[in-house]
Structure to design on (773 residues):
C-alpha cells in the first residue's frame, strides 16, 4: 500500500500527489514512469514520476483528471493509500551533459518535463524551459523549473507571461541559435508541432509518448507506436523517442480508441453519484 | 468403501463424461465450462484404472504425479489420502486438472487407451484437487525445519509457484516477486475464467502463503531491482518470468484500432475483468465479428472469450490444418461446439481498415501443406490467387510470445540463446552461479505443466545447490559432476 502524503491542486484539473514509494523514490531516473492501480477493479494508469524525495521515501505524481479513473485517483485524500504502485518503468531520458537544452512543456506535460530539466541541470547542461497553458491558472511547475534555468511562460489568452503557444516561443528560441537538443512533452499536436519546427534545423528532438498501456512491462503491446517506420512498445522501448521519427497521427488515432468507453464510464459515474452511493 | 473388483469388471466400465454447461448457454457467460465430476462419477471412473504393475501414466506426467496411488486411495474412499498424495507430487493440481493436455501426456500412456478410451486422469485429478480446496482444514500444512537459506523467485506463474511450494516444503525461506498487482502470472492474466476460475488460483496461492512462501507484487525485476541486486540478497535465485513479449504478424494494418495481441485482450478481460465494464474500470473493445490468428491454446482462449463478449461470429485463422492445431483437444472441441468457425490452411496478409482507422477486415491467403520444415511439421505454402477477405471488426493476434528482455538486459553475464531465452545447464542453472531458470523464459512459449515440471526440477537442484552436504556427500571437483549425473539419472527416471 502506498499512502498519499500530500495533495495539491495545481490547476483547475491537475492535481499533485506525494505518494509513499521508497524504493522507486531511491532509484527512479528522469523519463521513467510508474503504473498506478488504485484498488481492485480500478484501471492500471501510467504516470510519469515528476519528482522524488528519497529521504522521505516519496514520489510526486501529477494527474490530469480527464476520465473516471483519473478522477477517482485525485479524489483520494492524504492518509488514504493507493493499492499498487509499480516501477520505475521505461527507459531513462537520454540527457546531455553539456550544451544548451530547450525543454518545452504543454499543459500537464510540463510535469513530465520537470524531471528531465532536473536531470539536465544536475548533469551541468544549460536549461531553458518553455511552458504554457490556456491561461494563468493552467500554468504548472513554473517555480520548480526556475531552479534549473530560465523559464518562458506562454498562455493562449495572454493572461500570464507571453501570449501565444509554446511553439511560438520555441520557434524564437531556436532562431536565436545555440540549442543542442529539444525535449518536448505535451498534447500530441504540440509535440508534433515542435518536432516540425526542429526538423529543418536538424536539432535532435526527444518527445515523451503517452499511449494506452495495461501492464507497462512489454507484455500487452497495447502501447505500440511507430517510430522510423517500425513498431515499438512505448513502455519498454520508450516512452521517449526521436520526435522526428514518430508517427504522431497514428499515436493520436490510437489514443482515441476508448473514447466511447470513457464517455460511458463518465456517464455511469455521474449516475452513481446521483443515486448517492458516493 | 467398495469391495475389490476384477480387471474384467474394470474393463466393463466405460469412460465417464465430464458434466459441462450447455454450449449455447456457456458461450454467453464466463462461468466454468466443465462442472467437475460428482463423487459417484469419480469413484466409477477411478474403478476403470487397471492398477498396472508397471504404470506408464506416471512417465507421461511432466511432474511425475504418482497417478495410480492417488486413484487407488480415492477408490478406497480415502479422498484425504488421495489429496495428500497428489499435493505431495503436484503443487497446483486444481490448475493442472483443468488445463493440462492430458491426451498427449498421462492419458496417452494409459494402457486402456490402446483399446478404447484411457482413464480420465485429468478429471480425477481435478476432483481430488477440488476436494482438497474445499477441505483445506483436513490437510495440515507441513512446517519443516528452516534451513536458513533464502531463495528469490522471479515470477509467480506456474513455474515460479511450483518451485516456491517445493522449496518452502524443503525448509527454505522463499520470496516470490511478481511484476503485476496479483500473483498467478499466466494462470491469472492469460487463462480465462471459464476454463480456470480465478478463485482457484487465489486459493492455490493462499495455500503456498500458509506454507510460508512470501509474495511481493509490483516488483519488476530488471527495473525495481536488478538481477545482481537480488542475487546479492538471496542464496539462490530462480528466474521464471515467462515469455512475456507478444509477437505480431508484421503485416500492414496491424496498428489499426481493433487489433489486439492475445496478451492484451486476455489481460484486459481476465486480470482487469473488462467483461464487467463499467463495474470494472478497464474497458475492452467488443468485436461483432472477430478473427483470431493462431491455433494454440491462447488462440482458443481468445476466440471463446470473444464469443462470450458478444461476438456474432468468431473465427480461428490458422495457417496449417486441423491435425496440426497445437491447442489442447478439449479446447478445440469446446470452441467448435460454442460456434467458433475455423478458417484452416489460411494465413493473414493484411489487416484492412476504414478512414477512421478501425479494422474492417482481414485479407488472407489459402495455404497448402508442403515439405516438412525444421519443426518436422509440413510447411504451409501460399496458394497463388487464393486471396480473400474475412470481414471483421476485431483481430486478435495469438501467434506466440518471445522472451521479455527487461530482466536479462540488466545482467549481461546471463547467457542467452539467439532467441533471447536464457540458457541453462542440466541442473537448470544459468551462466550466473546460483541463478537458475525455467519455464517459458528458457523454453520459449510452452505449456503450464512443462513450466511446472521445470519449477519442480529447479526446486530439487536449488536444494542440492544450497545443501550440498545434506544431499550429496561429495567434495571438490567431483561434486558438480556427480550432482549433474544424479539429476540426469533422476530425469530419465521421471520422464
Amino acid at each position: 500500500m502506498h499512502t498519499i502524503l500530500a495533495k495539491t491542486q495545481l490547476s483547475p484539473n491537475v492535481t499533485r500527489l506525494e505518494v509513499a514509494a521508497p524504493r522507486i523514490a531511491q532509484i527512479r531516473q528522469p523519463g521513467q514512469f510508474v503504473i498506478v492501480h488504485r484498488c481492485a477493479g480500478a484501471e492500471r494508469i501510467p504516470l510519469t514520476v515528476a519528482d522524488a524525495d528519497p529521504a522521505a521515501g516519496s514520489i510526486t505524481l501529477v494527474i490530469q483528471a480527464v476520465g473516471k479513473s483519473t478522477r477517482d485517483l485525485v479524489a483520494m485524500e492524504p492518509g488514504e493509500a493507493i493499492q499498487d504502485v509499480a516501477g520505475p518503468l521505461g527507459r531513462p531520458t537520454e540527457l546531455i551533459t553539456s550544451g544548451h537544452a530547450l525543454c518545452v512543456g504543454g499543459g500537464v506535460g510540463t510535469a513530465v518535463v520537470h524531471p528531465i530539466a532536473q536531470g539536465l541541470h544536475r548533469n551541468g547542461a544549460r536549461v531553458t524551459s518553455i511552458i504554457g497553458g490556456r491561461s494563468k491558472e493552467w500554468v504548472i511547475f513554473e517555480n520548480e523549473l526556475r531552479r534549473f534555468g530560465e523559464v518562458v511562460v506562454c498562455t493562449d489568452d495572454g493572461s500570464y507571461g507571453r501570449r501565444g503557444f509554446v511553439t511560438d516561443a520555441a520557434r524564437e528560441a531556436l532562431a536565436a541559435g545555440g540549442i543542442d537538443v529539444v525535449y518536448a512533452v505535451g498534447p500530441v499536436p504540440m509535440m508534433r508541432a515542435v518536432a516540425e519546427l526542429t526538423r529543418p534545423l536538424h536539432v535532435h528532438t526527444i518527445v515523451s509518448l503517452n499511449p494506452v498501456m495495461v501492464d507497462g512491462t512489454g507484455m500487452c503491446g497495447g502501447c505500440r507506436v511507430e517510430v522510423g517506420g517500425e513498431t515499438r512498445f512505448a513502455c519498454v522501448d520508450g516512452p521517449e523517442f526521436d520526435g522526428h521519427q514518430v508517427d504522431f497521427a497514428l499515436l493520436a488515432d490510437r489514443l482515441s480508441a476508448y473514447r466511447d468507453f470513457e464517455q460511458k464510464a463518465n456517464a455511469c459515474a455521474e449516475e452513481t453519484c446521483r443515486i448517492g452511493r458516493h | 468403501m467398495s469391495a475389490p473388483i476384477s480387471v474384467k469388471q474394470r474393463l466393463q466400465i466405460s469412460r465417464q463424461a465430464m458434466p459441462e454447461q450447455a454450449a449455447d448457454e456457456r458461450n454467453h457467460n464466463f462461468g466454468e465450462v466443465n462442472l467437475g465430476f460428482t463423487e459417484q462419477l469419480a469413484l466409477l471412473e477411478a474403478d476403470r484404472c487397471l492398477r498396472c504393475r508397471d504404470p506408464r501414466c506416471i512417465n507421461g506426467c511432466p511432474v511425475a504425479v504418482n497417478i495410480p496411488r492417488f486413484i487407488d486411495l480415492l477408490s478406497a474412499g480415502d479422498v484425504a489420502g488421495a489429496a495428500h498424495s497428489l499435493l505431495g507430487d503436484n503443487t497446483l493440481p486444481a490448475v493442472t486438472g483443468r488445463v493440462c493436455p492430458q491426451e498427449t501426456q498421462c492419458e496417452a500412456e494409459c494402457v486402456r487407451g490402446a483399446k478404447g478410451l484411457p482413464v480420465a486422469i485429468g478429471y480425477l485429478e481435478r476432483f481430488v484437487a477440488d476436494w482438497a480446496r474445499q477441505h483445506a482444514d483436513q490437510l495440515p500444512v507441513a512446517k519443516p525445519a528452516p534451513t536458513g537459506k533464502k531463495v528469490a523467485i522471479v515470477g509467480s506463474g506456474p513455474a515460479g509457484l511450483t518451485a516456491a511450494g517445493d522449496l518452502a516444503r524443503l525448509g527454505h525461506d522463499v520470496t516470490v516477486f511478481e511484476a503485476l498487482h496479483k500473483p498467478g502470472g499466466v494462470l491469472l492474466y492469460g487463462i480465462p475464467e471459464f476454463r480456470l476460475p480465478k478463485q482457484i488460483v487465489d486459493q492455490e496461492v493462499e495455500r503456498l502463503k500458509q506454507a510460508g512462501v512470501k509474495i511481493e507484487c509490483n516488483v519488476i525485476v530488471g527495473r525495481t531491482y536488478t538481477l545482481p541486486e537480488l542475487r546479492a540478497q538471496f542464496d539462490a535465485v530462480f528466474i521464471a518470468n515467462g515469455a512475456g513479449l507478444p509477437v505480431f504478424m508484421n503485416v500492414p494494418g496491424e496498428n489499426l484500432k481493433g487489433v489486439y495481441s492475445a496478451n492484451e485482450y486476455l489481460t484486459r478481460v481476465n486480470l482487469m475483468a473488462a467483461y464487467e465494464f463499467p463495474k470494472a474500470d478497464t474497458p475492452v473493445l467488443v468485436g461483432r465479428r472477430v478473427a483470431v490468428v493462431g491455433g494454440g491454446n491462447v488462440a482458443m482462449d481468445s476466440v471463446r472469450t470473444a464469443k462470450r463478449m458478444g461476438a456474432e461470429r468468431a473465427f480461428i485463422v490458422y495457417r496449417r490444418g486441423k491435425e496440426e492445431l497445437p491447442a489442447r483437444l478439449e479446447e478445440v472441441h469446446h470452441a467448435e461446439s460454442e460456434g467458433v468457425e475455423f478458417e484452416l490452411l489460411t494465413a493473414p496478409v493484411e489487416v484492412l481498415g476504414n478512414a477512421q482507422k478501425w479494422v474492417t477486415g482481414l485479407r488472407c491467403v489459402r495455404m497448402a501443406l508442403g515439405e516438412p520444415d525444421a519443426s518436422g511439421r509440413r510447411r504451409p505454402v501460399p496458394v497463388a490467387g487464393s486471396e480473400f477477405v474475412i470481414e471483421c471488426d476485431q483481430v486478435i493476434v495469438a501467434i506466440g510470445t518471445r522472451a521479455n528482455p527487461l530482466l536479462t538486459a540488466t545482467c549481461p553475464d546471463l547467457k542467452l540463446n539467439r532467441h533471447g531465452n536464457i540458457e541453462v545447464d542440466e541442473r537448470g542453472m544459468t551462466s550466473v552461479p546460483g541463478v537458475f531458470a525455467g519455464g517459458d523464459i528458457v523454453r520459449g512459449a510452452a505449456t503450464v505443466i512443462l513450466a511446472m515440471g521445470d519449477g519442480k526440477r529447479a526446486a530439487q537442484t536449488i536444494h542440492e545447490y544450497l545443501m550440498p552436504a545434506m544431499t550429496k556427500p561429495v567434495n571438490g571437483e567431483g561434486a558438480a559432476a556427480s550432482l549433474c549425473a544424479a539429476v540426469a539419472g533422476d530425469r530419465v527416471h521421471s520422464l
